[in-house]
Specification:
The protein is mostly loops. It contains one helix and two strands.
């Protein structure tokens, strides 16, 4: 099972916002407009701590880690 991890932008130093997802009002995240957003490390579809199962749709491997059902990294 995939779980989202924090991805930090190498240009602005902020956490990258997952692709296509809205951030809470007033939160500061690296946005797609930042030059570094499209650079390595690549961001995925999940927020940190969110699982692919929670998300409800298949997601990319970018910005994720593999864990078992108990939440242990595999």
């Amino acid at each position: 099972m995939k779980i989202g991890v924090c991805v930090t932008c190498s240009e602005c130093g902020q956490q990258k916002q997952p692709r296509g997802l809205s951030a809470p009002l007033g939160a500061l995240y690296c946005q797609p407009e930042c030059h570094g957003y499209q650079m390595e490390p690549l961001v995925g579809d999940l927020w940190p701590g969110e699982t692919e199962e929670d998300f409800g749709y298949p997601c990319s491997d970018h910005g994720t880690s593999e864990v078992d059902r108990a939440g242990r990294t595999t």
